[in-house]
Specification:
It is built from 8 helices and 6 strands. By secondary structure, it is an alpha+beta fold.
Length: 211
């Protein structure tokens, strides 16, 4: 007997159908696995770029105690650090490391600081010295703004600690440091005048008592 004549064509067809189905499923699983691997690679891959920071802007980008560079890292989720050695002109590269999306955000944040040169800090001053820092009709605080080049804004409401009041200073790193120095000088003058008034007031009381 010829074995080919005994073969059931439906069995052969079913076998081919099952094989094709298995092949399709395997292909589908492999494709999905590759897609997931690509997504993981895009998510985890790290890139590095360098941004040149002019020597006059290095302090502003870093901020007092590194507060500006730390803020950029937190907001953009990338790592930033300055190279150890400047170039011949004193400029330094800041190295930004992270995902491509994050390092672009970090680059923009640093370039914004360089171009605008403006940052903002908040300090607390004694409530008793606020009037002295402002001056009559705001003359003193306008003078402090002109000398430092910074914008100084004194909050109208006192902070949680009522002994102090918030002051916001906006400008470059150097401008802010100058403004803080000038404000501290005015606070010292105010406190000295207060001590003098108390001292002379006490002496006047003693003199009246001796009469």
């Amino acid at each position: 007997m010829n074995p080919l004549k005994l073969t059931n064509p439906w069995v052969c067809f079913a076998g081919m159908t099952i094989s094709a189905s298995v092949a399709y499923i395997c292909h589908r699983l492999l494709t999905e696995e590759r897609i997931n691997e690509d997504k993981e690679i895009r998510t985890t891959r790290q890139s590095t770029i360098k941004v040149k920071v002019p020597k006059d802007s290095i302090g502003t980008v870093i901020g007092r105690g590194g507060e500006n560079i730390k803020r950029i890292q937190n907001e953009t989720r990338c790592r930033c650090h300055f190279e150890d050695f400047p170039d011949e002109e004193g400029n330094r590269n800041v190295v930004i490391r992270g995902t491509p999306e994050n390092i672009l955000e970090g680059k923009r944040a640093i370039e914004d600081i360089i171009s605008n040169g403006s940052i903002s800090v908040e300090i607390q001053i004694p409530v008793d010295s606020v009037g002295f820092v402002i001056g009559r009709n705001g003359e003193t605080i306008r003078s402090l703004c002109e000398i430092s080049g910074a914008k100084i804004i004194i909050s109208r409401s006192s902070s949680k600690n009522r002994a102090f009041q918030s002051v916001t200073i906006k400008g470059s790193f150097e401008q802010i440091e100058t403004a803080k120095t000038l404000i501290n000088e005015k606070i010292a003058e105010s406190e000295e005048r207060t001590r003098d008034r108390k001292f002379y007031g006490m002496n006047t009381s003693f003199s009246d008592a001796d009469m």
